[in-house]
Amino acid sequence: MEVSNSNDEKVYPLMDALTQLRKDPALLTLIVLSLGLLVLKIVFIAMTGVVDDEALYYVWGQNLSLGYLDHEPMVAYINRLSTMIFGATPFGLRIGGILLWIAGSAVAYGFGKSLNNAASGLLFLALVNLTPFFAGNAFVMTTDTPSLLFIFLTVWMYYLGLFKDKRYFYLAGIALGLAMLSRSSVAGVVFAIGIFMLISHRRKEYLLSREFWLSCLIAVAIYTPFLIWNAQNDWIFFRYALGRQLVKAGGGFRGFFELWISQLGLYFPALFFSLACLVPWYTARGVLHAIKGTDDARERKFFLAIISFIPAIFILQKSLTVKVEANWPAFMWAGAAALLALWLSERWRMPAKIAFLVNSVLAAILTALVLLHAIHPFLPVKPSVDVTRRYYTYQAFNGALKDHYRTAMDTNVRIAGLNYQIPSMASFYLKPHKQPLCLDFGTYHATAYEFWFSDSSLIGESMYLITGAGDAGNSNAASARFKSMRYDGCFTSYRGKEAITSFDVFYCTGYRGNGKTNTRWRPRHAHARH
Predict the structure, then answer these.
(1) Which residues are CB-contacts of 426 (< 8 A; sequence separation ≥ 6)?
(2) Of 96, 321, 399, 408, whose CB is crowded by the most CB atoms within 10 A?
(3) How many DSSP H helices and E strands does the chain contain?
(4) Average pLDDT value for the chain
(5) CA distances (Å), 445 to each of 84, 140, 251, in order?
(6) Residue 201 in 3-state DSSP?
(7) pTM of the full predicted structure?
(8) What H or E segment, with its residue span, contains residue 338?
(9) Among 34, 27, 5, residue whose Cα is nearest residue 368
């Protein structure tokens, strides 16, 4: 069956999607796979432990602020609401991600449908649900989860504002403000939208649009509290988080290949094909025709292409100079995904149909295997490359260490670690009376805990220090900062019967301070629970 290529602005009801599914077994297969993965994700979030970043963002939710040392505040607000409603459990923390991704699926369908028809909407929905990176953000609650939802919503609303009704710009401004409060990297998409407007033969109409400039003011108004917080705290986020990312060691040809191979694996061949082939093609064609004017359909594809093309050029350049983490380029994929959904809907027949089905089925199988293996290991994977082990690294905090804390430790004594993971896991699983913290002995990079706590106010305290078992470097560094240290036990994390990792606990008295005269990251107003 060939799907018609209709670019009119008719609003299709939900019945159009159901009718399309009844007519097309291929599309029905994609949606069934999406629903199956959704059920499996819900099982997963209830049966595995949280990972280190999730625990840190939980702590943020317990210490609400207008900003944080290394990220924007949106994930903290969502975590606080989610755990208030569903409880401070792995399920309660992560169900917010599931709900956000259900909303993201609705946005993807609506966006895709506005590009062409119900088929393009269903194809976009399938892309969002079956692409491994997108799918993964539904069952791990990180800053990427709300960011991707609001980025897709921002691009959709600006698309409608540019090509349908300028009143959509108001909604675009709200979506953009929320996206910026999730991850500031959305600025790359906004910059690309601005370049499109300057290049387009309709640039005069766009740039004189009152609604567009009001959308910018709305976004700035929503983002302003975060800026005020930064101004009150010496622009700490921009100095620390962005500065650290821009100078992270790595890059070169090795870093370049590692990043782009990871992108191929995370986004799979179909979406990678869109970024590598469709995006440059439609960008080049759009630029060439911009001066003399072009038809509306070509202009729309140019818009979708350039909002991925410009961020991709930036990421490509950065990957040659610094180490770029695999999740950082997420903001560059929205336009590529929308363009691929539109392109496929115009060619939804053999062989494109078979190629995309194979791509999607393989992606769904891979994602399902990872989820099932995380719940109950069965794949012959070496421990050194088994990424699912991270869900059990801190199992001791929800097992033997929790039991020891409740029965043999003084709950009025603060827990400390020398990285952010340990105090975060202690906060999530042990629920201590006093906020755990990360001590700064020069063995780890700056953390939010250093930002929250004044080291001088802790001098003289007794603490339980938790380190990785056998970590002589950290224990030696700590011994010089306390009057005394007493070994209190070793506690092991298990995955079934397999020992994953162990943690040493020391009872330390008379904290002497970290020996530093000042810190660059001290806020004017501390706001952590002491």
Answers:
(1) 397, 415, 417, 432, 436, 466
(2) 96
(3) 23, 5
(4) 90
(5) 31, 24, 20
(6) coil
(7) 0.92
(8) helix 334-346
(9) 34
The amino acid at 483: K
111 to 108, 151, 395: CA distances (angstroms): 5, 12, 41
β partners of residue 493: 501
The Cα-based distances of 450 to 75, 173, 445, 446, 454 in angstroms read 20, 34, 10, 7, 7
Match 């350049």 to its residue by tokens. Answer: 317
What does the pLDDT look like over 19-77, one tens digit per residue?
A: 899 999 999 999 999 999 999 999 999 999 999 999 999 999 999 999 998 899 999 99
CB 511, CB 463: distance < 8 Å: yes
CA–chain centroid gap for 92, Å, is 18
Place of tokens 């989610």: 82
Residue 351, preceding peptide bond in cis (omega within 30° of 0): yes
The one-letter amino acid code at 82 reads S
Q: Name the amino acid, one letter, at 73.
A: P
Q: 3-state DSSP call for residue 454?
A: coil
What does the block give as tokens for 69? 């040392």
Do 223 and 150 meet the contact criterion of CB atoms below 8 Å apart?
Answer: no
Tokens of 207: 């740039």
* Beta strands 463-468; 437-438: pairing state: unpaired
Cα angle 83, 85, 91; round to 5? 50
Helices within 116-143 (DSSP H only): 118-130, 132-136
Other beta carbons within 10 Å of 393: 18
List, edge to edge, every strand of the sheet that includes 414-417: 437-438, 414-417, 463-468, 498-511, 482-495
